[in-house]
Structure formats: C-alpha cells, structure tokens
Specification:
57 residues, alpha+beta, three-stranded antiparallel β-sheet, 2 helices, globular
C-alpha cells in the first residue's frame, strides 16, 4: 500500500491518500488538486514532488 499526505507538498493541506500503487495515489491527488486547489492541470514539476513524497505503508 502506498500513501501521500498533501501537506508534504502544499503546506496547510491535511488531505491524505492511499492506494495499492503510485498511479492509484496520483489519480486521487490529481482529482484533489482540481477540486480543492483549483488546478486545471497538474504541472509535471508538481507530479514529481508528489511522486517523491509517496511512501510505502
């Protein structure tokens, strides 16, 4: 299982995500970035920051 805490990249955000692999977590993060952070698209730099902060749980 993999996990990501949005606050590791966006200070102050308390949303967390879990999934069986990085791609599942990234899909959840992309939807969250659009709905809660107002991003129309997720920039590649942000994807890399998220990938680097995903941990094995």
């Amino acid at each position: 299982m993999k996990a990501f805490a949005c606050g590791d990249v966006v200070p102050g955000c308390t949303t967390t995500f879990t999934g069986p692999d990085d791609d599942a977590v990234l899909a959840q993060v992309a939807a969250h970035a659009t709905a809660d952070h107002g991003l129309g698209t997720v920039p590649p730099e942000l994807v890399e920051q998220v990938r680097a902060a995903i941990v094995l749980v």
